[in-house]
Automatic annotation (TrEMBL):
Organism of this sequence: Candidatus Fusicatenibacter merdavium
Every Phosphoribosyltransferase domain range: 49-162
Family: Belongs to the purine/pyrimidine phosphoribosyltransferase family. PyrE subfamily.
Binding site for 5-phospho-alpha-D-ribose 1-diphosphate: 26, 73-74, 100-101, 104, 106, 127-135
SUPFAM superfamilies from the UniProt entry: PRTase-like
Name recorded for this polypeptide: Orotate phosphoribosyltransferase
Description of how the protein assembles with itself and partners: Homodimer.
GO terms, biological process: 'de novo' pyrimidine nucleobase biosynthetic process; 'de novo' UMP biosynthetic process; pyrimidine ribonucleoside biosynthetic process
Top-level taxon in the UniProt lineage: Bacteria
Gene (UniProt): pyrE
Pathway, per record: Pyrimidine metabolism; UMP biosynthesis via de novo pathway; UMP from orotate: step 1/2
Length: 224
């Protein structure tokens, strides 16, 4: 596993973004782990988060694209932090763009915030985590409406590796539905492999009991 992935797993735990215990998800599923990207709140955390996204985008899609699109609202700071990190790490200037929830009819008008998207632009979409693909359903037509645009892929922070609407993971469903690749900085498989019976932040996060709970969860809800 790449060093930045290991660092990112520790970073999620340290930032209390990835927690283990007993949680009820929006879907109603009882999960032994929970991710809340809203817990990234400081300048240092956002700078580091942008760097991890930048490295993952570089590894999966390269940097030969024009616009990084972050769907409102959580995608807005992600797109800003990551374009800054790409500039600092690789010396490449990528434009950031997000959508508004409501169309603005005065001043900087329209549905888009940041850079406009135009014919010929190559776009990477950035999100925190995707469980159902609902935000892509909203985002995809907005991007397509801007012109002849190529979407190179989607990058999220964590692939939960559980079923979406069908038997496959949400990221696999997105790839099949929209025809562009969908990847994550890390998968839950990598998280489990790295944290199982190893100390992190001074304690063992995934011991045998937690591993058994995770295995039971994936037996019921894991993607096929």
């Amino acid at each position: 596993m790449e060093a930045y992935k290991q660092e990112f797993i520790e970073f999620m735990v340290e930032s209390q973004v990835l927690k283990f215990g007993e949680f009820t998800l929006k879907s109603g599923r009882k999960s032994p782990f929970f991710m809340n990207a809203g817990a990234y709140v400081t300048g240092t955390q956002l700078r580091r988060l942008g760097e991890y996204y930048a490295k993952a985008i570089h590894d999966n899609y390269g940097l030969d694209f024009d616009v990084l699109f972050g769907p409102a609202y959580k995608g807005i700071p992600l797109s800003v932090a990551t374009t800054m990190a790409i500039s600092e790490l690789y010396g490449v200037d990528i434009r950031y763009c997000s959508n508004r929830k409501e169309v603005k009819d005065h001043g900087d008008t329209g549905i888009l915030l940041g850079s406009k998207i135009k014919d010929g632009d190559r776009v990477v979409i950035i999100e925190d985590v995707t469980t159902s693909g609902k935000s892509i359903e909203e985002t995809f037509p907005i991007i397509q409406a801007q012109g002849d645009v190529q979407i190179k892929g989607l990058m999220v922070s964590l692939n939960r590796m559980e079923r979406g609407k069908g038997t496959k993971s949400a990221l696999e469903e997105i790839q099949e539905t929209y025809g562009f690749p969908a990847n994550a900085i890390v998968t839950m498989e990598e998280v489990i492999e790295y944290l199982y019976n190893k100390p992190c932040q001074g304690k063992v996060i995934i011991d045998d009991t937690m591993k058994a709970a995770i295995d039971a969860y994936y037996a019921e809800y894991g993607a096929k």
